[in-house]
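Protocol step 4 of 6: structure prediction from sequence.
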Amino acid sequence: MQTLDVIVHTISLASSTSRSYELRAADGGALPSFEAGAHIDVHLGPSLVRQYSLCNSPREKGRYLICVRRDDAGRGGSRTLHRDLTVGRRLRISPPRNHFPLVAAGHHVLVAGGIGITPVLSMAEALAARGASFVLHHYTSSAAEAPLLERLQSSALGERAVVHHSDQGDTVRAGLPAELQVPEADTAVYVCGPDGFMTHVVAEATAAGWHPGQLHTERFAPTAPPSAEAEAEAGDGDGDRDRDRDGAKAGVAAEFTVRIASTGTGYRVPADRTIAEVLTAHGVEVELSCEQGICGACLTPVLAGEPDHRDEVQTPDERAAGDRITICCSRARSPELLLGL
């Protein structure tokens, strides 16, 4: 997997529990361009890789900006960043990837919960630069806990942003933003935040008549598949953008075979192991990152067979096509899958 060497250029407080980290190329050169909604992998140790959304404007070519909320109940990514990262620290990161891109629309409604503001803020910057029509709603627990609030309110985005604080009784459960109460044909809706927050917004918007194709989300952690009893602990996703979560592997499932198209070799995948684990154990080189089905790094072509999708990366149409699978978490509905490896 290609990586980039960067230096932690600055660190600043983004809220009482969040910090912003500005990353610049270690050699002083330019960094690869990115589009709003993109994220990077940050390598924090030999087996500690976390994904963070870029929250600065895509027009900025010389730096990446990430914002991380400390989550002491997570798997350690945010704690490591808050504890160990200092100005001047050298890091390896991946080039930006984007599974949450802006689509063309006459109007965009951006809805963020907590640290879910990170990709949404980049989207707002991109839309503002285009002179596009949009509104941004940011739901937080309090002003002190609201990440990047000062930047949001002091910038040109402030007049298009509405901030809601639950400690003042202003929550999304009291009602959807006015812009979502009546569907508009040429409007795209983007929702990012804790799982419960997104589930509620999408359910209410769907009930109000919005078409599923208009509603775009990016989750911090995979939802448990209905057939996986062992995945009952879904985590509350309380705003940590590093997507920390235990129990990422699939739960109870049948065995099946994966066959590699280039060699014709088949490998049995038992119920308690993932496709990626089996292939790696047999020396088959695969690309992995989050190993939770939320980054898309391991998407692999499916040439034959029916996948049992358990990722949060592909759209409903992409899942229905059945021509790619996240081998880190998804399984098979058919006895065998032929993979384009």
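Step 5 (inspection) to follow. The longest strand covers residues 4-13.
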